[in-house]
Hints:
- By secondary structure, this protein is mainly alpha-helical.
- It folds into 4 domains: 9-126, no CATH class; 131-354, no CATH class; 359-453, no CATH class; 478-521, no CATH class.
- 60% of the residues lie in helices and 4% in strands.
- It contains 24 helices and 6 strands.
- It has a 4-stranded antiparallel sheet. Strands 5-6 form a two-stranded antiparallel sheet.
- The chain is globular, with a radius of gyration of 29 Å.
Amino acid sequence: MSDFGALSYYLGIEVKQGKKALMLGQSVYASKLLARSGMAECKPCVIPMEERLKLTKASTVAKVDTTLYRSIIGGLCYLVHTRPDIAFVVGYVSRFIEDPREDHWATIKRLLRYAKGMVDHGIIFPKTGGNIANFFNYIPLIINNVGASCMRKDALLTKHHDVLLEKIENGEIMTRRGLNQETSLARHGDTRWGSHLKTLLRILVMWEAIIDVLEIVKKDSIKPTCNGGALGLIEKIESFDFVFILHLMIELLSMTDILSHALQRKDQDIVEAMHLITDVKDSLQDMRKNGWEPLLKKVKTFCKKNGIEVPDMGKKINVKGTSRRRKQKVTNMHYYHVEIFLVAIDVILTELNHRFSEISLELLVCMAAFNPRNSFSNFDMDKLVRLAEIYADDFDIGELVVLPNQLRQFVNRARKTLEFLGCTELEKVAEIMVKTKMHESYKLVYRLIELTLILPVATASVERIFSAMSIIKTDLLSKMGDDWLNDLMICYNENEIFIKIDNKKIKKRFQDMKKRYCYFG
């Protein structure tokens, strides 16, 4: 057996191994696939599939080459290995391989144009031993053990109260109205950004009280086998690893907290959100460059105060996740600085760059130029024309020439029309245009507004829906029908609206739907 060095290429998959991450891509394979389909010189697009596209096997349009159609489908299926973002569309168009038609092929061509624009994309795997993921696995265990019963919750509040009194007497904390309020451990939400920060901050504030309660749990356990949970948690919490990651994640999550809350708002200001994204990226880059020493100093101070042993940063240790027999050694400084600190920051930066790429930012900024607030104060002709150019299938060359004049005339008229006074949402602009028949005079403007409204931007609402789906459709409810799942998803994600509906109205509507065997009183 021969050693050919680090893997770089395998069955069409390119492997790029860096010091901090491993990337899998198929740029060469994607280029060959485009050439094979005759789409090598096609114009890229940023959306893989039209929204709410309905295709059917009973299509009556002209047939296409079945062999070519199946060949391209097979190539796209292999491309999914490093491009999971196209998996849904590939699965959808593969339903029609028996009798492909022109409308089916048009969808594949759009998908190939999407692949053309992102041919160098792939999957990035940070080179980390899962230290942070392991840290977050312990957080719910701590909360469950400490708050498993009312007695433990009361004990936690009492211990925390005693700690606060002791710190006030020693002059460690100040007293003022609104400070040092009674609090408890907060369970992080599965579908809400920013909730992890609240949980970690409570753990940091109630540190001494949590350890005291865990000691009580250990002592009061009747069975010896019940001691292991609390005992193991005490050892884990009072380790330098746990303290270091706790402080690191609080720093990182506090940087992204404002952005997280901004993206959750349904009436979010796109321009403001873009500024926040830039601010977060700049803050993360600054922390990556200058934040190591202040963080390490803060962690050491906390450990010294709470009697936690601080490891020698120059001492060599085995690489985490490898056997001692391999004798792969790194220093503690390398482990904490590179494998945890730098990797955590790089993962967040990579995620931000992936979700808010230059193309996505351009789309959002162009959309913001149509903001009707303050009499279209953000109106920008060049950005709106650029937005129309992105939709090459919806605006031909002649319409792009006429569009600037229509935009200018429409905005001038809107600023003089009373119906648009105080309008703050683009949806309202579309409604007013229809009511006043302006959509017939400014057809291109109305078409651009329609495209802006249906632009499928992946916001926090989408993220919450997908995460909520994993909560609702569990293993026990795996056979749940689509209609029932949709109803539950709506209720779960719009609970703020449904909680305001009176139960009597719900029961009356249910009773009036059709005859029932019983009456809900």
